[in-house]
Amino acid sequence: MKMNEKVAIITGASSGLGKATAIAFAKEGANIVMAARRPEKLNEAADYVKSLGANVLALQTDISKADQVVQMVNLTLETFGRVDLLINNAAIDYPSPITELTTDQWDQIIGVNLSGMFYASKAVFPTMMKQNSGYIINISSVAGKKGWPNATAYCATKFAMAGFTQALNGEGKPYNIRCSIVYPGGMDTEWHTNPNPKRIDPEAVANFLVHMATQDPRFVVNEAVVSPINEGGYP
Ligand SMILES: NC(=O)c1ccc[n+]([C@@H]2O[C@H](COP(=O)([O-])OP(=O)(O)OC[C@H]3O[C@@H](n4cnc5c(N)ncnc54)[C@H](OP(=O)(O)O)[C@@H]3O)[C@@H](O)[C@H]2O)c1
What we know:
The chain is an alpha/beta fold.
């Protein structure tokens, strides 16, 4: 059990990659904090992770609301006393041409994908500084490497995550806090309404996240593109 006694917060854990990641870290013995908005999906996912024997805290949280994110981290500390890993995974998109993308949709995409990452990272950082250890993994996308039509706001957030990650990695170094960015390619999740057999299972990406988080803490995988070999999304 490579993550015994460790505490991992995973945002967007009610489905897809977030849920798969909660399962993968639970199997390595971590205590898991699962955050998302939909209580039924969240509790169902949390019950499954508990059934694996993990200690689980399921917290209904809208990551785009700073006060809710602070509450999420406070409850984590009250329950488990520390935070070793934060995975900023929650994201949304409203695929549409720029002429149809509303300013409200733009604000929401920025609010969840970017501001949510900032609120959560800021909220855990003081604890990680005191611990003199910690790891933050930000989930971007191949849409953070290449711009796609009908995804201006989404791509803008996924590209921007790179600058945030690099800057924060530098800030964390004196405290042994590491910060990485992962760029998944197409994954078979609720994100897509149409099936495509070329997509990768979120479990495969989740297992890769475990691999990253269990390396020697004296080095960091700064960034990783994890895309299906037979999908055209990334060269
Ligand atoms: N699927 C793909 O092909 C693909 C490819 C590249 C990158 N990604 C990235 O992978 C990550 C996970 O996506 P996925 O494929 O697993 O899709 P998903 O199943 O739709 O998962 C998205 C998660 O984010 C949560 N979420 C959305 N808004 C939230 C908010 N305001 N506060 C808290 N949680 C929120 C959702 O839960 P609630 O609705 O319950 O809040 C859900 O659990 C995202 O960052 C996405 O950009 C996905």
